Amino acid sequence: MKHHQQAGFSKLCFFLVVVFCFITVLSACVSAPQTQEQIRWFQGELTAPKTPVVITIKGLKPNTPYNIQVYDRYHQSEQKETASTKTTLMRPDRSIPESYKGTHDGVHYSDDPGGITIIVLDNTLLLSIETSKATGVGFFRISISPVSEDAVRSAQRVNLVLDGIPVIRKGTPGDTPVTKGYGVFMHGSSIVPEARDLMGSYAAGGDYVFVSAESNRFVDLPGVRSAESFVLDTPALANAPYAAKRAELASAFLFDGGDQSIYYSAWVNSSFA
Questions:
Q1: Is 209 helix (H, G, I), strand (E, B) or coil?
Q2: Which residues, including other chains, have CB under 8 Å from residue 3's CB and lie 6 or more apart?
Q3: Beta-strand pair 64-71/138-146
Q4: Cβ within 8 Å of residue 107, ≥6 positions away
Q5: Edge-to-edge strands of the sheet including 108-109?
Q6: 81-116 tens-digit pLDDT
Q7: Strand order in the sheet with 207-212
Q8: Kind of pairing, strands 64-71 and 86-90?
Q9: Is the pLDDT of residue 133 over 90?
Q10: Within 10 Å of residue 74's Cβ, how many Cβ atoms?
Q11: Which of 230, 213, 215 is nearest to 166 (CA)?
């Protein structure tokens, strides 16, 4: 009798183990596609100069935060020159809400660190992608994936006016510099993103400033405490107290390209310079 009880118990244990293994395998099979669906990929081709390509992404969850990455190392004619594309985000009716706009003429540049992080308002999102290069053609890829609300908050930028200077800011600048070993770099349309991002390591986790004399565009850096962009296009702004303060406390600078004579006439003998 005891032998039969032990045999029955062994069979029961074996059955439970088999059931557990089956459920584990089934769960893995079911969950694997869900993980893969977290990141969706799209591809497009720029076939003519200044001709936008519109990508339609459906099946999104409204009022959900997403991150979008645009990979755009396309070739320009036979020189195979690389440059960033411009992405405009739109709702299904092609309207552009304020929360979809980038910080340079309402568009997003693909070489900005971190990509585009927004809260998608509808189940469909339109991306209009183009390049300012006159002969820029080639392929690009897009990835989109859901992210946390914390990621949205960390990517948020605020627009301020400080001592008359229009400022775009992300993060909170400190009252003391992290390092005096300044990183200084010139920005331009042919900038290599990896070289620009190196300024983030030079900043050593401190504060970074992108300065222009022509346009108020935000250019981020990875790994910094705060990032600010502002325009100093007149002697009055270059002598403003806030300009001198940021020049003293920032650990990295990135200067915009453009007409260098504007920089000289606005900054010569200024407190910022």
A1: strand
A2: none
A3: antiparallel
A4: 86, 87, 88, 101
A5: 53-57, 125-130, 86-90, 108-109
A6: 455 688 999 999 999 998 998 877 778 877 666 788
A7: 158-162, 165-171, 226-231, 207-212, 252-255, 183-186
A8: unpaired
A9: no
A10: 20
A11: 230
Residue with token string 């992290």: 178
Of 270 and 220, the structure prediction assigns the larger pLDDT to 270
CATH number for the domain formed by residue range(s) 40-153: 2.60.120.380
Q: What's the residue count for the chain? A: 273
- Given a cut of 90, whether residue 63 has pLDDT beyond it is yes
For 163-220, strand residue ranges (E) read: 165-171, 183-186, 207-212
Beta partners for residue 161, in sequence order: 166
Per DSSP, the chain holds a count of helices (H) and strands (E) of 6, 14
Cα–Cα distance, 252 to 49 (Å, whole number)? 35
Task: State the CB neighbour count (10 A cutoff) for residue 57.
Answer: 17
Cβ-Cβ contacts under 8 Å for 38 (sequence gap 6 or more)? 145, 146
Look up tokens 């403003």; give the residue. 240
The C-alpha atoms of residue 162 and residue 168 are separated, in whole angstroms, by 10
- Give start-end residues of each CATH 2.60.120.380 domain in the chain: 40-153
> Which DSSP category does 77 fall into?
G
Q: What is the pTM of this model?
A: 0.63
**Residue 98 burial by CB count (10 A; 0-12/13-18/19+): exposed, middle or buried?**
exposed
